[in-house]
Amino acid sequence: MAFFESEIVQDEAKRLFGDYQQLMQLGSEYGKFDREGKKLYIEKMEDMMERYRVFMKRFELSEDFQAKLTVEQLRTQLGQFGMTPETMFQQMHQTLERMKSELEATA
């Protein structure tokens, strides 16, 4: 079975995409959240990023041609911005850590 035909892969892709969209919409109101709301948002973002990291690792480890092609396309697209998937995850992590620090500073 091809990588993208897997029901597990399709379900996780749909859940990740949906969760990401919801968090981005919610994030537009981040400045209006109280302290606990901000903490919860950061936690949800961290969870989503970890799920995304695992999902991408599945692509990298797959022997499926389409999965390998997808990884290469992502690397090419990120490369246009001087990034790799690894640096993308590092920057996202740094952003979330900065958000946590700012939250702690206001405590």
Automatic annotation (TrEMBL):
Natural source organism: Cyanobium usitatum str. Tous
Pfam families: DUF1825
InterPro entries in the record: DUF1825
Protein name listed in UniProt: DUF1825 domain-containing protein
